[in-house]
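To close the chapter, one final illustration. This time we ask the reader to focus less on the individual chains and more on the assembly as a whole: which components sit near each other, and how the overall shape emerges from the parts.
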Amino acid sequence: MRDGVLGIQQPRRRGLTDEVAEGIRHAIFDGSFEMGEHLNEVDIAERLEVSRGPVREALVQLRQEGIVTMKWHRGAHIVQFSAKDVRELASLRTVLEVFAIREAAVSATETDLDQMNQVLTAMSRALADESDHAMIQLDVQFHDSLYRAAHHDRLWNAWSSIRSQVMLSLLVKRHTFNEYYRDRVIAEHRDLLQVVAARDPEACERAVREHLAATYERLVSRFRSTDEETAESTDR
Amino acid sequence: MRDGVLGIQQPRRRGLTDEVAEGIRHAIFDGSFEMGEHLNEVDIAERLEVSRGPVREALVQLRQEGIVTMKWHRGAHIVQFSAKDVRELASLRTVLEVFAIREAAVSATETDLDQMNQVLTAMSRALADESDHAMIQLDVQFHDSLYRAAHHDRLWNAWSSIRSQVMLSLLVKRHTFNEYYRDRVIAEHRDLLQVVAARDPEACERAVREHLAATYERLVSRFRSTDEETAESTDR
DNA sequence: GCATTGCAAGTTGTTGACATTCGGAACCTT
DNA sequence: AAGGTTCCGAATGTCAACAACTTGCAATGC
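The assembled structure is written out below.
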């Protein structure tokens, strides 16, 4: 946020709560937990060498991000997305992102555009590595920079509260994205950057709608429509 | 949610965290705290007769709701809205609520419409009492029922994360709303209900845009703008 | 056998004590 | 007296123990 006088990034002091939240988030994205798995507070606390206090506070945060659910005296579980959930993510995200890109078209600075561009070049590099995980991360990162370019704190918060869900829903089905990512991601995102740079609100809205429709059309079908159906045999 | 077999409303068990969060929220809305005031954890804990643990967890929740800010080792403060904040609330809320009412127009049930109607009648009663506080509460409550009619969990969460801010920004300037509330609230909200009931998406969108524009046009001017904002702002 | 009841183990919820950090008052230096 | 430094009080951050709750299992009764 504020760099020191010497341009040195002064160590941002933050509590264990945030560290733990990031740790758990990272673990979830890395696939260290199964979908629906129970998160044991003492396990996490011991593994991160912290007490349970910060862990609990972190879980409250993650609940707000929608990637864990909590019930009274029943602890936290990783969410399990149904097709309905993904459809909700798609529709809400479209609404937010159309708004975001229209705002960005008006108030994006050169710096903002640069950052979007940097993500694009990072994508090109990642394409060679064929790492789906890295690519998805960059995908989300690009949209981060788009939202940031809108310069709208509360819009950013709204995005933050579904961001982790978006990331998780993509990661879970990452293997179905191979061809898509190889063929179209970079082009589509470059289009987004261009319409923003061109300051054309209408083109912006069209580009976002197409981009998200294309992404989610294939994604939704990968999730089960009823989560009542169950249940693979118990793994214990 | 699920009533017992005997129709007995089983007491919804919830932790102290939620109770405390609601307590603090209530206190803030009641004006028990000044804007920007520091929230002392031990004071709150003692006053509510709980330990600091639940209080801290509750504050994390309230931070997510945007009505308190927290900094490392500096605790929690009530937010202070600037004109920019209120403008952000207005624009984001418009985006969300347009989406909400269009969804509601499609998927609202009779029960949903009934609940909206109930709030309307409660408003009529409150109008006589001339209690601004009660009226604002009902105003927000009406919009609650609108969002609920959309049957979209993530949209509801997005609304929840600005709801408290909306409520607070209205309450802080409640004295400027006398005439408006007396004259137009009920009519405008009844319009909203009618267009939803008519299942007319376009009329819905128009009604919401007008309603919110009217509300925020007068509200924004009541908040003072920050220095930097006036310095670099370009009107549009 | 099947359902019910009581127990026990394990997990979460809560608490009070301890450690760390911030901000300001008092003090020294110039 | 102005400016900087040191120290202390007060609040927050963290921890480990205690209490409450849920759940699965086994014993009991039918």
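The longest strand of chain B covers residues 68-71. Residues 15-17, 50-54, 72-74 of chain B lie near DNA strand C (CB under 10 Å from a C1'). With these observations in hand, you are ready for the problems at the end of the chapter.
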